[in-house]
Amino acid sequence: MYPAELIKPMREDLAGAGFEELHSAEAVEKAINAKGTTLVVVNSVCGCAAANARPAAKFSLTNSKKPDHAVTVFAGVDFEAVDKARSLMVPFPPSSPSMALFKDGELVHMIERHHIEGRPAEVIAENLMAAYNEFC
Predict the structure, then answer these.
(1) Where are the alpha helices (DSSP H) in the chain?
(2) Does residue 107 sit in helix, strand or coil?
(3) Domains of the chain
(4) Of 8, 31, 45, 48, which has the fewest beta carbons less than 10 angstroms from its beta carbon?
């Protein structure tokens, strides 16, 4: 587990942009199964989360169509919540950071770590926005 003071700014980066932080399996289940669309960001301490994933997730929400709900869990901290989120992202293997779009509880779009590493935030955001345009 990472120290709270280390991850606080990383949590606040998404929370400050309107993402709801989820800390339990029950909260994840409720958010993902909510009516409409839900973006789930598996946040992380790694550099690609800071440089690519979080900026992309935040920028993607400027799209005219966007998810009804935006939530986040933190890998290496929110163990129960992350495990539950990942169990609903099958068949994709666990990766951090990652992003998934659910519609009425069904996984409809996934961005894994290997889609995030080395890609500019703008390209990742465009990928998410295309998914929003299709599913939201």
Answers:
(1) 4-15, 25-32, 47-48, 54-60, 79-87, 113-116, 121-135
(2) strand
(3) 4-135 (3.40.30.10)
(4) 8
Burial code (b: 16+ CB inside 10 Å, e: under 16) for 18-43 equals ebebbeebebbbebbeeeebbbbbbb
Residues carrying an active site annotation:
46, 48
Q: How far, in whole angstroms, is CA 102 from its chain's centroid?
A: 11
Strands 106-111 and 69-74: unpaired
Looking at the DSSP assignment, which residues form a beta bridge with residue 43?
A: 74
pLDDT per residue as tens digits for the range 57-73: 999 999 999 999 999 99
Confidence of residue 3 (pLDDT cuts 50, 70, 90): confident
